[in-house]
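From the shared-data thread, chain only:
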Amino acid sequence: MTEETFRHRVPSGLSPDRLDRFLSRAVPGLSRSKVQRLIMDGKVRVNGRPLRRPSYQVRGGEELSLEIPPPETSELKPQKIPLNILHEDEWLLVLDKPAGLVVHPGAGHSEGTLVNALLAHGSKLSRMGGAVKPGLVHRLDKDTSGLMVVAKDDATHWNLSKQFAGRSVLRVYQAVVRGQVQRTEGTIDAPIGRHPVHRKKMTVRHDSERDAITKYKVLKRFHDATLIELTPQTGRTHQLRVHLASIGHPILGDTEYGVGGGFSRQALHAHRLGFRHPGIEQYVEFTSPLPRDLQREISRLT
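Structure, as tokens:
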């Protein structure tokens, strides 16, 4: 495998920002530490010249190029796990992930993941996510069901990542939360950061630089629960779960940030997904109805 070179022009009018921080945000598949290593290895050019200074202040109009080396050889095993694929073409596929399926291998989940299933499916997958996240442009929590897009090549992955980073991807969720949400619609604007004590959890932190915005709309009210539609404007870790818990309406079934409430898993479903298709250069949108387990548990509400 050879290196892939990607180019990105810094938007005009952008306030000066560190080179490593800017690139880690522009390319969601790359962590800031990995970007720093690439910079120090001379893999990043600014206006055509190599620059080995992560702290360099990029400015609007500058042309950045980034050489991404091929990932390490993956030892992941393909596993025949059923996939509900709604659309597939030469550039990408869109699937409906079931609740309970972990997206990629990690601590405690070396196999039985969506990635293992994708490898068995036989499609080529982009390499930008590295050895354990091939094709993954974004993710859903294990117990969240719904729509995901997977990239088959690096150019498609790069394009979709920029759309996610630029907040132009339509993502609409449905959730059942505790209590009756009084306002018919509203916006939760509260920055999210790592919990100061429980390091695996996130929380609303007003000292965080990572803004987080979620719009919501009430779909149906029950005696002590509400079915709502959620449209995140940002993509922070656990954003919807943390935001809803912060206003006193945690997602039912979310035992980490809320309460069980009679639901066997967190009542959160990625319902709609829309983006500009990098291959055909047209807007496409997909819809997934609430899965049967949530419909069944909602039907018990009064």
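The chain has three domains: 4-68, 85-166, 171-270.
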